[in-house]
Amino acid sequence: MNQKDIERALANWIREAQSPTGRLAEGAGPAEWAAERFVAWWRKEVEELLDEGDGAVARLRDGVTGVLNWEEHGEALHELIHVQDAFADLRDALGFNETPQ
Known about the structure:
Low-confidence stretches: none
Shape: elongated
Radius of gyration: 20 Å
Number of helices: 3
Strand content: under 5%
């Protein structure tokens, strides 16, 4: 996902929301409708990227468990834990641990 993908997705929903054909849900305005669709799409895209990164770190950590020891490699093992914590903090900051509306 890059800026062009984001712009394209948002432009599509804005165009659909303003289209004279079709109807929006009762009580929904064009901006609200487009924003809801965009946020759902963006959330899915970002969560997939976070899942990939978090999974890679978990696999790396599992792969080195038993091979590396804390006495010799404690700093590297601590950094793996730090990366996993950072992914969890990012999920929290983005509200991904909350139920979508």
